[in-house]
Amino acid sequence: MSTIDAAPRLAGPARARPGRGHPHRAAWARRVPLLPALVFLIVVTQLPFLATLVISFMNWNALYPDQRHFTGVQNYQAVLTDSILRSSVITTVVLTVSVVLISLVLGLLIALLLDRTFFGRGIVRTMLIAPFLVVPVAAALLWKHALYNPEYGLLNGLLTDIWSWWGGKAPQPDWITQSRRRQW
């Protein structure tokens, strides 16, 4: 046995891995692509939560914006001392907790049932996922009829208002036909 083989080996982070670089750098290299999603998640969820928390400590009426002022915990005292408001809060909490628990239990049971092999499992799975496919269709129909309709759509109404403000005859663009000719 040589003296090189008998030398104690370093364990843990002090021992460098050959050809790989620093382990912390590799960990950050895996995490950096996730940072935009994390920032977006914080902006979309946590900032509105903080704004709502700040507003809850204020007397804030949208009809009287000049009369906003800090009230401290008076809003919370009003909720806890008024029996009707307290009853509404309790009803909301009970309803929320029960819906979440029932949804969780039913979702788990359905997932466990669909994990088993049975005749028609593919059809049942397709029927359960179908509502998620309906949402894009509903959005497309909303855009088609509410925004782009040449008679009562939002874009046509805005263009009519703009052209009439300028004193000209408003064009009637047809946003939903397949024709390539210009309607204006």
Task: Describe, in plain words, how this protein is organized in 3D.
The chain is mainly α. It contains seven helices and two strands. It has a two-stranded antiparallel ribbon. The mean pLDDT is 81.
Q: Which features would summarize this protein structure in a list?
A:
184 residues; mainly alpha; 7 helices
Strand content: under 5%
Number of helices: 7
Outline the low-pLDDT stretches: none
What is the number of strand segments? 2
What pattern of helices and strands is seen along the backbone?
Answer: HHHEEHHHH
Strand order of the largest sheet: 1-2
Q: How far apart are the first and last residues' alpha carbons, in Å?
A: 92 Å
Structural class: mainly alpha
* Largest sheet features: 2 strands, antiparallel
Mean pLDDT: 81
The coarse overall form would be extended
Q: What gyration radius follows from the Cα positions, in whole Å?
A: 31 Å
In helices, the fraction of residues equals 55-70%
Topology:
Blueprint: H1 3-6, H2 23-31, H3 35-55, E1 58-59, E2 69-70, H4 74-81, H5 83-115, H6 121-147, H7 154-165
Antiparallel strand pairs: 1-2
Helix pairs in contact: 4-5
